[in-house]
Amino acid sequence: MNAQTVIKICQEKGISLSDFALSQESEQDNISKTEILTRFGQMLSVMETAARTARETPIHSVSGLTGGDAYLYEQRRKKRSLLGSTASKAVACALSCSEVNASMGRIVACPTAGSCGIVPAAVLSVQEEYDLPREAIVKGLICAGLVGQIIGEHACLAGAQGGCQAECGSASAMAAAAVVELLGGSPAQSFDAAAIAIKNSLGLVCDPVAGLVEIPCIKRNAGGVMNALTAADMALAGIVSRIPFDDTVDAMNRVGRQLPTALRETAAGGLATTKTGLELAETLKNR
Ligand code: SF4
After folding, report:
1. What is the Å distance from ligand 1's center to 264 Cα?
2. Whose CA is nearest to atom 8 of ligand 1?
3. By three-state DSSP, how is residue 67 classified?
4. Is the pLDDT of residue 5 over 90?
5. Residue 144 CB-half CA count within 13 A
């Protein structure tokens, strides 16, 4: 399955991406659509809690390397933010989910734990701004899942395999497509948004300090959701991606294979081997 085929089917049948994904998953896994909607609803509940927890109370990671940033940012954005209400809420939610993950709390890996803040932050911030019903958000998540499934089939979703473009880049693409669907865009526009999001994160390396999913992962989730919202907004304006989604996934796959091992979750390159990154790793070792 690829995006081109999915868009064609959706256009012929006059259905949305989430309708397509719901039918496909129901047939593939032999479960009812109601059951699928219930499962996604449960995932949404976990996302809602993770997106709120670290904004309300400062929480810190088990290593002590990170924490408290979601709370700090929430305090600022309530008074003033450069970003406006939707984007600033998205940043706060992304930080919160990622800090919950770093503190070993409960999150939904979407597509991975390291990139768990991007999809929830995008859909929950848009939900608040547009006062969308919960059912619409559930359908947005189903749409995001379909995009992730296509990326997984044609490239990969793990930093160890394809660098952070495969994690945060894929999450941005999934979130961008979901937001377009939530706001009434077409399946083609959803995939344009996803393609733009991938293009904007192509080549992003995986370089976690001390091998922990904290630095730079937490802040990269904040950047990832901004990428998603920007891509969705452009697609909703009618801007198309000259390089179609399927081609961007192919490029991501090839770029991932070309990345040296040092930049694929080994903590042997990038930020992990900066002077400070190495010092932080050493401090943890000597504890
Ligand atoms: S830097 Fe690596 S571990 Fe961190 S979010 Fe990106 S892919 Fe995951």
Report:
1. 9
2. 114
3. strand
4. yes
5. 35
How far apart CA 186 and CA 278 sit, in angstroms, is: 47
Task: Check if the beta carbon of residue 253 is closer than 8 Å to that of residue 155.
Answer: yes
Mean pLDDT of the chain: 97
Token pair, residue 59, equals 């929480």
Classify residue 64 as exposed, middle or buried by CB count within 10 Å of its CB (0-12, 13-18, 19+): exposed
Place of tokens 């802040």: 219
* Span 129-185, pLDDT tens digits: 999 999 999 999 999 999 999 999 999 999 999 999 999 999 999 999 999 999 999
The rounded distance, in Å, linking the Cα atoms of 179 and 125 is 10
Positive or negative, the CA dihedral 90, 95, 106, 56 is negative
What is 73-89 written as a DSSP string?
HHHHHHH--SS-HHHHH
Sign of the Cα pseudo-torsion (64, 65, 69, 72, in order): positive
Report cis status (omega within 30 of 0) of the bond before 208: no
Choosing from 172, 220, 266 the residue with most ligand 1 atoms within 8 A of its CB, the one to mutate for a pocket test is 220
CATH architecture of the region 3-285? Orthogonal Bundle (1.10)
